[in-house]
UniProtKB/TrEMBL annotation:
<protein>
    <recommendedName>
        <fullName>protein-glutamate methylesterase</fullName>
        <ecNumber>3.1.1.61</ecNumber>
    </recommendedName>
</protein>
<feature type="active site">
    <location>
        <position position="39"/>
    </location>
</feature>
<feature type="domain" description="CheB-type methylesterase">
    <location>
        <begin position="1"/>
        <end position="189"/>
    </location>
</feature>
<dbReference type="InterPro" id="IPR000673">
    <property type="entry name" value="Sig_transdc_resp-reg_Me-estase"/>
</dbReference>
<keyword id="KW-0145">Chemotaxis</keyword>
<dbReference type="InterPro" id="IPR035909">
    <property type="entry name" value="CheB_C"/>
</dbReference>
<dbReference type="GO" id="GO:0008984">
    <property type="term" value="F:protein-glutamate methylesterase activity"/>
</dbReference>
<dbReference type="GO" id="GO:0000156">
    <property type="term" value="F:phosphorelay response regulator activity"/>
</dbReference>
<dbReference type="Pfam" id="PF01339">
    <property type="entry name" value="CheB_methylest"/>
</dbReference>
<keyword id="KW-0378">Hydrolase</keyword>
<feature type="active site">
    <location>
        <position position="131"/>
    </location>
</feature>
<dbReference type="GO" id="GO:0006935">
    <property type="term" value="P:chemotaxis"/>
</dbReference>
<feature type="active site">
    <location>
        <position position="12"/>
    </location>
</feature>
<dbReference type="InterPro" id="IPR011247">
    <property type="entry name" value="Chemotax_prot-Glu_Me-esterase"/>
</dbReference>
<dbReference type="GO" id="GO:0005737">
    <property type="term" value="C:cytoplasm"/>
</dbReference>
Amino acid sequence: MANRDIIVIGGSTGSIEVLRTICGGLSPDLPAAILVVVHLAPESGNRLASILDAAGPLPAATARDGEPIERGRIYVAPADQHMLVLGGAIALRRGPRENLFRPAVDPLFRSAALSHGARVIGLVLSGQLNDGAAGLVSVKACGGSALVQDPAEARAPEMPRSALQAVEVDRYAPAAELAALLGAMAASAPGPARPVPQDLHLEVNIAADGELDSERLRDFAEPVPLTCPDCGGVLSQTKGSGPLRFRCQIGHAFTGQALDTRQESAVDEALRVALRIVEERVELLRRLCEKTAETGLAARYASRADEYRAHAQTIRRAIVAAVMPDAEPADL
């Protein structure tokens, strides 16, 4: 009898301890493979697999490109590569970043849903922003099951909370109960197969380094007056259900929350660069004023220096307001 034999798990901040708890509670004869994506910096190395390998009875290892997926094993995405499920094997690709990360959770969830449909169980753990929510929508759209860590106990509740808002999940539970839930769900028969949404093929292909052009992008997204912060190209808003999402023609993808975070960072950097330039302008004008003290130009330079000091103070207030949006005017 077929069962739910593909478990995909995604998390970020606060998820490693949860993963250790899950691995420690799994049965050694779990009739499913587990594939794990945790947001990693490119230079972070690949130590997570050894942590999970020591945590419980199932062997865990950093995934290798092209290796077949076997039940009773845990596969961990390496740093700086998306981990995808293509048929019965793992594919590692350096496709465009999604939601500021590579590896990202959504590409794994989408590819598993595309390849294995109703046999997939998707689990979203603790993390910031909302990577995983759109992928969980794809898992459910293809007949799979959705499970979420209870946001009330998550160290970073944004990811599980966003998943709960995006899709009607099968269960949400605290970390201590997730291993038993996964075991019970994996042993059960999958639901009926569902038609695969056409856009799912396209988005999995993008993560797998497939080509993307304007015409194909229009099949599932509409151009909007926003710029991709990674490449400067025009963003398009994706159609369909789930969280607000955008893609550019290169393939970079952002949820609305991820784009907001990236834009806020860019604004902060631009303000700080502007402050540096204005303060250097004040210094130059001050020196010109000193050098021309015996001429009629000194007053002009002094006046302009005062103007730029006022500009610098305005920018400082803007920076403080961006960092402390609830501050009272007197605090600025």
